[in-house]
From TrEMBL:
Keywords: Leucine-rich repeat, Membrane, Repeat, Signal, Transmembrane, Transmembrane helix. It comes from the Eukaryota. This is Leucine-rich repeat-containing protein 3. SUPFAM superfamilies: L domain-like. InterPro entries: Leu-rich_rpt (IPR001611), Leu-rich_rpt_typical-subtyp (IPR003591), LRR_dom_sf (IPR032675), LRR_TM_domain-containing (IPR050541), LRRNT (IPR000372). Belongs to the LRRC3 family. GO terms for cellular component: plasma membrane. Residues 1-22 form the signal peptide. It is a single-pass membrane protein. Residues 15-51 form the LRRNT domain.
Length: 234
């Protein structure tokens, strides 16, 4: 952290995004765009940046491949924005080298697990209105962020009222399974689908039998009518 703080003091001469300040120390470059009323991530960030500060802006989403060309990135600060949506490929291209990702103080309710699967960075996720549901539990199972990152997650909303306001780790440590409700929903949907298929099969059989019966009746009537027709002819 002290090393990155030193980057704030030394300007460098190459291209720099408008409204941002660019600094350099010992070849490590930082782009500082804090509190600049930005609504999206700048497109002209230098490729060799190591530290990128975009905190305290009005950014609402992180699109796919937002940082793909910034292969030297080690730290991204996106705290205190208005981020609601994060694309599954948001951090594609920088995941391997990223050491710190700050997403605290936003409006994030959920994150696609694909966005974090390859990350090994220290995550900061506090002060977001997290919805504690199966998708978030699966994210923890598959992405396996460090405990300090997970400890920051508090359930703002949840399928069950008793989980609201509690840290997610506390909910899961108490034995809760946030995926059980979805599993029950899937089971019910499967039963409904099977019942519908069975009902259609029965309806088909009934129609088939009724059609054959009506066809047999028409044939019998036709056969009965033949002798009478022959008698009238004679």
């Amino acid at each position: 952290q002290a090393f990155f703080c030193l980057l704030l003091c030394i300007p460098w001469g190459s291209s720099c995004p408008r409204s941002c300040q660019c600094t350099e120390r010992a070849g490590a470059k930082a782009v500082l765009c804090s509190s600049q009323h930005l609504e999206e991530i700048p497109k002209d960030i230098p490729r060799d940046v190591v530290l990128l500060k975009l905190d305290a802006n009005s950014i609402t989403r992180i699109p796919g491949n937002a940082f793909r060309h910034l292969s030297h990135l080690e730290e991204i600060d996106l705290s205190k924005n208005a981020i609601e949506k994060i694309d599954g490929a948001a951090f594609k291209g920088v995941a391997a080298g990223l050491r710190s990702l700050d997403l605290s103080g936003n409006r994030i309710r959920s994150i696609p697990k694909e966005a974090l699967l390859a990350l090994r960075a220290k995550l900061r996720l506090a002060n977001n209105p997290w919805h504690c549901e199966c998708a978030l539990q699966e994210l923890l199972w598959e992405a396996r962020p460090d405990l300090d990152s997970v400890r920051d997650i508090t359930c703002h909303t949840a399928p069950r009222q008793e989980y609201v306001g509690k840290p997610l780790l506390q909910v899961l440590d108490a034995g809760a399974n946030l995926c059980s409700a979805r599993q029950r929903t899937m089971d019910v949907a499967m039963l409904v689908a099977m019942f519908a298929w069975f009902a259609m099969l029965i309806a088909y059989v009934v129609c088939y039998v009724r059609h054959n019966r009506e066809d047999s009746c028409r044939r019998r009537e036709h056969l009965r009518s033949q002798p009478s027709a022959q008698a009238h002819a004679e």
